[in-house]
């Protein structure tokens, strides 16, 4: 039996992450996959592409990890942990990560690619006083802000709850003010 046949049997011919049934292929989980069934997963093209190219990641596609993270297959657990870690700035993936348990060997495998390593100073989101901001935090505006395109002014002292971090833009966060989803510069907020 080939690796692909064994993976089809193990998964019921479904993507082991999202459950899709089209365009399935063997994905060797890096960094040291030997091509064996234990070191591979059966994934759809969408999952494979987004894992390999973080710029194409669609966070809502990965809500499927709410189910697949409970797989008993270490290769699937590793992929789920890596994607949840990559998306943790969105808020909801961090909640799943907090529930996910990996044994020591599986965690070492998951961390082997550097996913989940502490961010360097250049990509940390900090408020006007230098306090580190995290997804889900509540912040308060420290000055009146004209919201372009929405025709209103966000007043000083307004609380913005459940913020999300803008990836690769340490000076920006996103949140809701007056029912509008807006981008806010971190230099104009303080952590509540």
Task: Describe the overall structure.
This protein has 192 residues and is α+β, with helices and mostly antiparallel strands. A hairpin with a 4-residue loop joins strand 4 and strand 5 (152-154). The mean pLDDT is 89. The protein has helices at residues 3-11, 45-52, 65-68, 74-86, 92-99, 104-111; strands at residues 24-28, 40-44, 139-141, 145-147, 152-154, 159-160, 164-165, 172-177, 180-185, 189-191. Helix 4 (74-86) packs across helix 6. It is 26% helix and 20% strand. A 3-stranded antiparallel sheet has the order 6-3-10, with no helix packed on it. The protein folds into 2 domains: 3-111, no CATH class; 121-191, SH3 Domains (SH3 type barrels), CATH 2.30.30.
Q: What attributes does this structure have?
A:
SH3 type barrels; 3-stranded antiparallel beta sheet; alpha+beta; 2 domains; 6 helices; 192 residues; 20% strand
Mean of residue pLDDT values = 89
In DSSP terms (H or I, runs of 4 or more residues), the helix count works out at 6
Class per helix and strand makeup: alpha+beta
Q: In total, how many beta strands?
A: 10
* Side-by-side strand order of the widest sheet: 6-3-10
Describe the largest sheet. Answer: 3 strands, antiparallel
Number of domains: 2
Topology as H/E string? HEEHHHHHEEEEEEEE
Categorize the overall geometry: elongated
- The radius of gyration is 20 Å
Stretches where pLDDT is under 50 for at least 5 consecutive residues are: none
Gap from first CA to last CA: 58 Å
Strand content: 15-25%
Instruction: Give the helix proportion (percent range).
Output: 25-40%
